[in-house]
Design goal:
Elements: H1 4-14, H2 24-44, H3 49-72, H4 74-84
Helix pairs in contact: 1-2, 2-3, 3-4
Amino acid sequence: MLSKRVKSKIIGEHGKHDKDTGSAEVQVGILSRQIDELTSHLKKHAKDNHSRRGLLKMVSQRRKLLGYLKKKEQPIYEKLIKKLDLKK
């Protein structure tokens, strides 16, 4: 889980305003951070299959949100991909 401070920092970076928690950009930013943390956890605990399933769900959700952004708002998608250093 991410702390409130980390989430508010991500919202500040990607959000359209201070209270913007629902936009696709913010959701992708938060999911990317959670994926990074869970990946490091799974490197230490390789047999934690319950967390692995959660990781796969998060990756799938991020992929869906990125697909939406690519279809609806191409410039924002390109900027977000570069900012988060993700593959296309």
